[in-house]
Specification:
With 379 residues, the protein is α/β, with parallel strands linked by helices. It folds into two domains: 239 residues, Rossmann fold (3-Layer(aba) Sandwich); 95 residues, Cobalt-precorrin-4 Transmethylase, domain 1 (3-Layer(aba) Sandwich), CATH 3.40.1010. Helices cover 41% and strands 19% of the residues. It has 15 helices and 13 strands. Strands 6-7-8-3-9-10 form a six-stranded mixed β-sheet, sandwiched between helices. Strand 9 and strand 10 form a beta hairpin. Helix 3 runs parallel beside helix 5 and helix 11 runs parallel beside helix 14. It is globular, with a radius of gyration of 22 Å. The model has no long low-confidence stretch (mean pLDDT 90). Bound molecules: adenosine-5'-diphosphate.
């Protein structure tokens, strides 16, 4: 099995005021996965994250990065932090420079990269969080959500192996939460390990490949989300509720007299399990963002006047908006495509080329569930 990218062994940490925040924490962060660290407030999540990139030093126990114990010398820490990027809960703890671009450039400059590369990374990162247009703006004038984006851009610009986000969705409106989770997916598809903390069970359940659950400074569960919530008492004991999708699946499985396993994590998978296809399916098309232009949009609309259009990926959303593309679905496009196609309506997914493989995999599963083949085509 692949070695975990981060691992701790019997980690203990006590704050100067004698609060014991970590007790015997042995936890593994598997490489290339999407991990949620779930736990109520005060569980020790932030404290654990501060150990992952060496900001805090354990009282006892070890932190290992790529199998090597973390060193606490200046050089070791610089090296570690270029590979393990932490986005703190409060962006004011992280933003120091007077303009956005200076702030995002800070980390890459510190790494001693050539100026040209620093600039490229800053532009790319600001583009990814949709802040490029504001790059010269003073950081003091930003809203909370914008500050969160800037601190995320700063972390992405390091091109880390591991991206850690401490309560990234807290305080964001629902659209920004969608955008953030989608960006995290995109980064993960490029090979980054992404780990985020939250006390929101819905995010943990629908987004994570695996979860680690903390309470009172201890890890109380490591594994897939279903395993944790299957014992409902366990979540309630630490003040968490069951995710809505988990609850819905249990009830629907009982009514339909089918096993609760597999556990759908989103509407798409729920439909796969319980959806019954009646009548003709719509056709589904994939259209790459890179081929989108005023002309091709007209062609799409002309060829398929009844089709619904949905976007997948941050690039698609941006290009679509720039070109004035009228879309029916901006988020949850798989779910929406499934529902529309299942009800006989044609659907065009406009997405970045690098999403194509994932879309194909998802749609294969959809085809199997409906006993029909869904063809993925280019216009
Ligand atoms: P979480 O991120 O899960 O909310 P934290 O890691 O922030 O949990 O906190 C774990 C425990 O450590 C809590 O009891 C909290 O009050 C305490 N704590 C956190 N930061 C400090 C600090 N700087 N000084 C003293 N105690 C702290």
């Amino acid at each position: 099995m692949d070695e975990p990218v981060i691992k701790t062994e019997n980690l203990c940490f006590v704050y100067p005021n004698r609060t014991s925040a970590l007790e015997d924490v042995s936890v593994e962060v598997p490489r290339g996965k999407k991990i949620v660290l779930l736990g109520p407030n005060g569980a020790g999540k932030s404290t654990l994250f501060l150990h992952f990139n060496g900001i805090l030093k354990p009282r006892s126990g070890k932190v290992l990065f790529n199998g090597e114990p973390v060193g606490y010398g200046k050089k070791d820490l610089e090296e570690l932090r270029s590979k393990v990027s932490l986005v703190m809960q409060n962006p004011d703890d992280q933003i120091f420079s007077s303009t956005i671009e200076e702030d995002v450039a800070f980390g890459p400059m510190n790494m001693g990269l050539p100026m040209k590369e620093v600039e490229e990374r800053v532009c790319e990162a600001l583009d990814q969080v949709d802040m490029f247009g504001l790059r010269e703006k003073p950081t003091q004038q930003l809203s909370f959500g914008q500050k969160k984006r800037v601190s995320l851009a700063g972390a992405i610009a390091m091109h880390p192996e591991v991206l850690i986000m401490d309560e990234p969705t807290a305080g964001l409106d629902s659209r920004m939460v969608h955008e953030l989770l989608e960006l995290a997916d995109e980064l993960n598809q490029k090979g980054l390990t992404v780990i985020m903390s939250t006390h929101d069970v819905e995010t943990a359940y629908s987004w994570a490949d695996e979860i680690r659950v903390m309470n009172k400074g201890r890890i109380i569960y490591s594994g897939d989300p279903d395993g944790f919530f299957s014992d409902g008492q366990r979540a309630r004991n630490i003040g968490l509720t069951e995710p809505m999708m988990f609850d819905l699946n249990r009830t629907m499985s009982r009514h339909n007299k089918v096993p609760t396993d597999p556990y759908p994590r989103n509407i798409f998978e729920l439909n796969q399990k319980f959806g019954q296809h009646r009548g003709a399916m719509g056709r589904l098309y994939f259209y790459p963002t890179s081929d989108l232009s005023g002309e091709t949009i007209k062609t799409i609309r002309h060829m398929m006047p009844q089709a619904a259009v949905g976007l997948i990926g941050s690039r698609a959303r941006k290009v679509g908006a720039d070109l004035g593309l009228q879309v029916e679905h901006r988020f949850d496009t798989y779910d929406e495509a499934l529902i529309e196609v299942g009800h006989g309506r044609d659907f065009v997914i406009v997405g970045d080329e690098n999403w194509r493989k994932e879309i194909e995999v998802r749609l294969d599963a959809l085809g199997t569930a409906f006993g029909a083949t869904v063809r993925l085509m280019r216009l």
